[in-house]
Amino acid sequence: MERVDDENYRVVGDLTIRDITREVVLDTEFGGQVRDPYGNDRVGFTAATQVNRKEFGLSWSALMEAGGLVVGDKVKITLNIEAVRGGSR
Questions:
Q1: Residue 28 — pLDDT band, cuts 50, 70, 90?
Q2: What is the pLDDT confidence band of residue 84, given thresholds at 50, 70 and 90?
Q3: Global pTM?
Q4: Interval 31-55: pLDDT, tens
Q5: E runs forming strands in 1-89
Q6: What is the CA radius of gyration of the chain?
Q7: Any residues with CB less than 8 A from the CB of 41 and at least 6 apart, and which?
């Protein structure tokens, strides 16, 4: 994980689909921190990346009547993450 600025990070990790693993970079934005009504500290993040599905062995496709593809090669992945601090205080 690399801090880009006060609210943005780059997270590098491995993504495995159908037994094929590739390194991906998630552009991540810190959404904020709050204390919930139960006294738990919660943080939120949004992370996004784009992969080429064919690099993971996903090659199925079909043509639409107008001639376009049903599934494109590029797939956008977006994560909305909420984390709660665990453990006792």
A1: very high
A2: very high
A3: 0.75
A4: 999 999 999 999 999 999 999 999 9
A5: 2-3, 8-17, 20-35, 41-52, 74-84
A6: 18
A7: 33, 34, 35, 84, 85
Domain ranges of the chain: 2-84
Which pLDDT value is given to residue 87?
55
Domain 2-84 has CATH 2.40.128.110: yes
Q: What is the DSSP letter of 6?
A: S
Task: Calculate the dihedral angle through the C-alpha atoms of 55, 61, 63, 68, rounding to the nearest 10 degrees.
Answer: -30
CB 3, CB 24: distance < 8 Å: no
- Euclidean distance between CA atoms 65 and 13, whole angstroms: 39
Whole-Å CA distances, 19 to 14, 25, 58: 12, 19, 11
